[in-house]
């Protein structure tokens, strides 16, 4: 019976449920889109290209492991955790190769070397990627490993000497290079000129995500710069041996070593380490976006349902008056919510699939996710979205309908005419608890010093404060109305009516204030978190660089030979090479850099607060104050950690410095770091010299792609790179902001459209159409002022706490033009969402509306 009545109510009151439907649909679309990202991170396919002809691959373990044993109440619990390392781990040949060859069913074992090898095209001096640009990487290999794909020669012959080179057909077709031509390659060493002896092509079509250059075995070993080590071994089975049997045999053969065995789709992550690392990023990003989206969706949907039920207060009160029990009203509201939630969830889930695809494409375009990680789509995200929508709709209806089902029928009829003076005590207590909870989160945020820890707390704090505003909204609106009384009354009769509405309909106005506050608070937080970090890092870097000039490369980096040449040049006091990486102390990740120790103090000042950087060497490490505090370090302490390629090392702390944001948490000797990274070329070279820029350019004419910049110009280039990261973060939270903006329009439109009878009575009392619209605009501006004021206050508190924790300064970066843009967008949304429904509500004749039966 109740289901039939619920269906009839939804059918007869379509207009009243449109706002609720839109809110639920957008929530389902958002959850589906985030779910597809999360699923791609968990189950996304990484297909192999280079290892297509090798069914089994043996490679080094790419993780740091930690095992903890806990004894509690006579029971022993063993926990094992693993975290990925930043660079490629290499395998030693001597022990592993003989083990693999001894395994039964092995026909061929092919050692593989993969290393940086960027071709430099003479016409532009730029590297050439497989798509005609420098976006996709180019790798060097030894020719004897060409069988792993397999590549075969289509022109010319294989490389024999150290100056021979075979290029893939894709590069040859794009550049017009042929056997006999010369090509300069920037690899791990200084640029070198090679003679092209042949052109090779993959047997099963061009490689999509990389280009390949093949060298002689001796030259490949020199360029790989890991003597006695290989990237991987490709294993081909003997005739009659299945891949499964081969994998099992090889696993048994290498048991007890650091080697891991992969087959089938497991080979892709071994080949594309960046795609494997992107899984973690996508899981984290999808989880954070999904969690924030759910919190925002619940807040918005509850507010929308509350407004919808408030519009039907008279109808529900009459049902109570004619003997409908509270249980029946709850069932009615619940079934209505399920009906609307089912339809909205299904439509939103379908819309979320292409939305998730677009979001994935944008992440790939910005470089946040490599194209090698293919998007995975299944029925699980849409099903979860529909389930979450149904549950959210039902819960929102129950929460929003609590008062109407609890009070007496006579009181319900009275409140249908006049809004209750005070919200329920449970609502007030919950609001105060959330307000205190938001304050606690602000305090916690001010002591968090890592971006990974502070980012989720930052957005959670905004949502918690928005929930407090939603619960305490009527009090907030009445207090704001008291403050705005004077200014509103000065605007004339429309302002007086607007003030009366703010005071008399505080609950309805609070439903509009909440999404405005959430939009403003969330937008300002998203837009100003990254600039706060970036500006602090840039300021520290500017203050810490003493160099007159900075070398930067258009390609993969600045060769060490360029810095060595400058050190022997008259007028150059110091040239400090900087190479960057990421290390792990235990399982925790820390940003690190390697610097050449010679005359380091002439080019670099990290603001040492303890110890000294004089005499800095390969056995030394300098740490930031943050890292020192977290790890309990001081000068003379021993730090054990894992380098980027998984090599464990132990260094002595020589100094503690304050400028950790600008220079990373750990600083080591350049040569130590360079031996354990995929790209040993310097990111930058800091030069102290009285030579002019033109003179230095002339000194480096043998190094194509290396530029001499002023420190400020180099800082601008790094800022551009940081802006790319900011775009990724903005894109990640952009959907939440868009959803919140839609909620603002939706709630305002619902609030205005229900007032058709009120407008008719004002018209009958002598108000003109223009005066009513002016009153609406004044109300909208007052609500906008309240909502954006609250949102700005929340954002300021959160950003200040974030800045204190991350930078040590209580001065977050707020770009005035961006802030004004946020307020402008919010204002336009508010005015449009008020004006259009208001004009529609004023179209019917006042007499017709006033005499119509409800």
Question: What do you see in this structure?
Answer:
- With 854 residues, the protein is an alpha+beta fold.
- It is 56% helix and 19% strand.
- It is built from 29 helices and 27 strands.
- The strands form six sheets. Strands 18, 19, 20, 21, 22, 23, 24, 25, 26 and 27 form a ten-stranded mixed beta sheet that branches.
- Helix 2 runs antiparallel to helix 8 (273-311), helix 2 (14-43) packs across helix 10 (326-366) and helix 8 (273-311) packs antiparallel against helix 18 (506-544).
- The protein is elongated, with a radius of gyration of 33 Å.
- The model is unreliable at 124-134 (pLDDT under 50).
Can you summarize this structure?
This protein has 854 residues and is of the alpha+beta class.
Number of helices: 29
Portion of residues within helices: 55-70%
What class do helices, strands and sheet pairing give?
Answer: alpha+beta
- Give the N-to-C terminal Cα separation: 23 Å
Instruction: Quote the average pLDDT.
Output: 84
Strand content: 15-25%
Major sheet size, sense and barrel closure? 10 strands, mixed
Low-confidence segments, given as residue ranges, are 124-134
Please state the overall shape, judged from the principal axes of the Cα atoms.
Answer: elongated
Q: How many distinct beta strands?
A: 27
User: Whole-number radius of gyration?
Assistant: 33 Å
């Amino acid at each position: 019976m109740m289901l039939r009545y619920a269906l009839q109510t939804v059918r007869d009151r379509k207009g009243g449920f449109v706002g609720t439907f839109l809110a639920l649909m957008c929530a389902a679309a958002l959850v589906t889109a985030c779910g597809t990202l999360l699923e791609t991170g968990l189950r996304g396919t990484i297909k192999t290209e280079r290892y297509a002809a090798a069914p089994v691959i043996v490679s080094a373990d790419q993780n740091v492991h930690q095992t903890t044993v806990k004894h509690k109440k006579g029971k022993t619990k063993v926990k094992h955790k693993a975290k990925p390392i930043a660079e490629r781990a290499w395998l030693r040949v001597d022990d592993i190769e003989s083990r693999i060859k001894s395994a039964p069913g092995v026909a061929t074992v092919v050692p593989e070397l993969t290393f940086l090898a960027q071709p430099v095209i003479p016409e532009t001096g730029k590297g050439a990627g497989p798509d005609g640009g420098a976006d996709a990487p180019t790798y060097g290999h030894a020719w004897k490993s060409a069988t792993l794909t397999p590549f075969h020669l289509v022109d010319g012959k294989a490389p024999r000497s150290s100056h021979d080179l075979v290029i893939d057909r894709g590069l040859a077709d794009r550049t017009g290079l042929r056997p006999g031509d010369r090509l300069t390659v920037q690899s791990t060493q200084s640029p070198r000129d090679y003679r092209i002896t042949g052109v090779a092509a993959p047997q099963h079509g061009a490689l999509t995500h990389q280009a390949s250059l093949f060298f002689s075995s001796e030259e490949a070993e020199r360029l790989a710069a890991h003597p006695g080590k290989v990237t991987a071994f490709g294993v081909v089975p003997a005739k009659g041996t299945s891949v499964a049997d081969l994998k099992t045999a090889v696993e048994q053969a290498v048991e007890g070593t650091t080697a891991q065995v992969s087959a089938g789709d497991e080979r892709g992550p071994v080949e594309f380490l960046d795609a494997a690392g992107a899984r973690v990023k996508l899981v984290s990003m999808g989880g954070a976006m999904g969690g924030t989206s759910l919190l925002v969706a619940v807040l918005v949907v509850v507010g929308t349902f509350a407004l919808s039920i408030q519009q039907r207060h008279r109808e529900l009160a009459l049902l109570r008056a004619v003997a409908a029990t509270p249980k029946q009203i709850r069932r009615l509201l619940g079934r209505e919510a399920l009906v609307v939630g089912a339809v909205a969830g299904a439509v939103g889930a379908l819309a979320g699939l292409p939305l998730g695809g677009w979001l994935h494409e944008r992440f790939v375009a910005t470089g946040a996710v490599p194209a090698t990680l293919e998007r995975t789509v299944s029925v699980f995200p849409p099903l979860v979205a529909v389930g979450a929508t149904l549950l959210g709709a039902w819960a929102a209806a129950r929460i929003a309908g609590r008062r109407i089902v609890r009070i007496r029928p006579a009181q319900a009829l009275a409140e249908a005419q006049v809004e209750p003076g005070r919200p329920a005590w449970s609502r007030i207590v919950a609001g105060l608890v959330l307000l205190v909870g938001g304050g606690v989160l602000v305090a916690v945020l001010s002591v968090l010093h890592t971006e990974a820890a502070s980012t989720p707390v930052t957005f959670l704090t905004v949502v918690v404060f928005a929930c407090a505003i939603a619960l305490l909204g009527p009090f907030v609106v009445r207090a704001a109305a008291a403050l705005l009384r004077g200014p509103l009354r000065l605007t004339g009769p429309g302002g007086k009516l607007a003030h009366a509405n703010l005071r008399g309909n505080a609950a309805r106005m609070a439903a509009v204030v909440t999404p405005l506050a959430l939009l403003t608070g969330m937008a300002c937080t998203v837009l100003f978190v990254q600039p706060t970090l970036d500006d602090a890092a840039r300021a520290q870097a500017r203050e810490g660089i003493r160099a007159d000039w900075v070398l930067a490369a258009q390609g993969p980096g600045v060769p060490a030979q360029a810095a060595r040449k400058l050190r022997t040049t008259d007028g150059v006091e110091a040239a400090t090479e900087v190479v960057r990486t990421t290390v792990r102390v235990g399982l925790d990740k820390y940003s690190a850099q390697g610097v050449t120790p010679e005359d380091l103090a002439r080019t670099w000042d990290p603001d040492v607060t303890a110890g000294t950087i004089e005499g800095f060497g390969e056995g030394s490490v300098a740490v930031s104050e943050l890292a020192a505090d977290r790890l309990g370090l001081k000068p003379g302490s021993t730090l054990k950690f894992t380098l980027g390629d998984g090599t464990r090392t132990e260094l002595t702390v020589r100094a503690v410095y304050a400028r950790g944001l600008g220079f990373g948490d750990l600083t080591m000797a350049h040569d130590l770091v360079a031996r354990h990274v995929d790209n040993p070329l310097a990111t930058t070279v800091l030069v102290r010299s009285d030579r002019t820029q033109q003179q230095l350019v002339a000194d480096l004419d043998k190094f194509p792609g290396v530029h001499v910049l002023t420190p400020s110009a180099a800082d601008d280039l790094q800022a551009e790179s940081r802006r790319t990261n900011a775009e990724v973060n903005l894109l990640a939270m952009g959907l939440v902001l868009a959803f919140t903006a839609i909620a603002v329009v939706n709630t305002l439109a619902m609030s205005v459209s229900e007032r058709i009878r009120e407008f008719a009575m004002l018209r009958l009392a002598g108000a003109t159409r223009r005066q009513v619209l002016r009153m609406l605009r004044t109300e909208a501006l007052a609500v906008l002022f309240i909502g954006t004021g609250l949102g700005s206050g929340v954002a300021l508190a959160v950003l200040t706490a974030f800045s204190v924790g991350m930078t040590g300064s209580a001065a977050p970066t707020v770009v005035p033009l961006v802030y004004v843009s946020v307020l402008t967008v919010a204002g336009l949304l508010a005015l449009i969402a008020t004006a259009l429904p208001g004009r529609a509500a004023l179209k019917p004749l006042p007499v017709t509306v006033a005499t119509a039966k409800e």
